[in-house]
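Let us practice reading a record.
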Amino acid sequence: MRNRRDFLKLCMTSAPALVLANDIHADDTTGLAAVQPVYRTPGSLERYIDPLPVPKRLMPQTKDEDTDQYCVRMLEFTQQMHSQLPPTRLWGYEGQYPGPTIEALRGRSIVVQWENHLPSRHIFDIDPRIHGAMPPTPAVRTVPHLHGSRSSSESDGLPESWFTPGQSARYHYPNSQPATALWYHDLAVGITRLNVYAGLSGFYLLRDNEERGMDLPSGDYEIPLLLQDRTLDDKGQLVYSPKFDDGQKAPPRFWGPELFGELPVVNGAIYPYLQVEPRRYRLRLLNGANSRFFNLFFNLAKSPTDIPSLVAFHQIGTDGGILPNPVALNKLLLAPAERADVIVDFSGLEGKVVTLSNDAPAPFPGWEIVNPHHLALHELMQFRVTLPVSSKRISITMPPPRPLPRLDETTSIATRDFVLSERMDAQGRSLGEQINGKGHDDPITEVVKLGSTEKWRFINTTEYAHPMHLHLVQFQILQRHGFDPVAFRNGTLEFVGTPRLPAANEAGWKDTAVVNSREVLTIIVRFEGYAGRYAFHSSLLEHEDKDMMRPYEIVSDESKSLKR
């Protein structure tokens, strides 16, 4: 294409990648009677009768010497999430849920023209009391954020950079970081939880030559798995119904701190199955749920009430890329927004059924385990080892040990403390959570120098475990340490017990890390990339919307601080 105008014309004229499910009506020419399928209610669905959908790769609209250009539309459509349910009204990128997978190569830039083609009325009720969603703010707003990307502030997808139906934004992703699994999702201020729940999320797989030389499973043997949970009504339509800590439903058009769906959804399908060969597979796991943690394991037992029979696996990568060493695991805890790159070997399991299972309580870490207020999701999907071994089978090896540069604590020029706290009303119900007693719209208090290294400590005084995410940067976990909450309320941070070093599968680069209740998480960060405004927040979407998100600013010696 000669210029940007030609590219935009192509975006406007290309056909949407929609898959619409329609009823079969009477045929006037043949006289055939209308055929109306018989559907079930969500609570009576048969499990594992539908194959797992694997999102297709999105192809670029144009290419030049060093840049691929894409046009991605946000659209409303209908899609069956289970063959025994009618089509569900959803929002998605390119008319599909989840959105198509974007693949990129390190060092080769991508430009995406994000276009909002959604209707003017939202699928869900909006709480007008939340910052960013107050009238006269439009009900339907979107801003795509490429989670984990090292991008300029102008292309970061900041929450307040939203745009409305009929508008678009053009973002540039330089892909100047190691191979890893990123994901793109909506981040519009005040309604992130609603937009993501409606379906606005998808994979972005970044490759590089080092990863390509590792002989990892690829093609049909590399499967992205987006793990979420949803509740549907008897007509198969999405229900967004948050609850308070005591299990009571929030009134209509009212925010609630917890949202746990009653059905597991993997790649947009409820209880799917995947036929596999008896060989190694690479699974790119992403927890895209609003609030739910998953403690995952591969189970040969026939029932979730049976004694588990675990299939061991290896984690080879995390949020920021390949780990220094593969880590053998039986279980994997994955918080919202975290990713894990795992190798599962189905060799020797011919004819067996392996169930991807979960035993994480909701909410996590399970302080209401005696009288739980939310349905547990013990099973997510099945792997059926029923395919013959392909004649194209090649030798698959684990990644060899590789050096991981460790950030030196002695180079840190500052230690910043961030207290995670919850506000309560007179009835003891949550009014939202904050960081250092401030919300997203309060003035910036964190200004860091481009190229500097700092230690950040997250002090969690709440009952929830929070996955904390920093935009732009990757970081390393230094330790977790318990503290005395009584002493802290009196103004003193007193550590309790011995510090815990990161687990082996956390000992790489991260952009999201869990800080447990009544614990201090210490990370070390080098602020590389760009000067500008960014954000850090909890990835529990209900808490992120109200109000556990703060802006921060990176400045260079030559730049001036942004206007507060």
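A brief commentary: The two ends are 40 Å apart (CA to CA).
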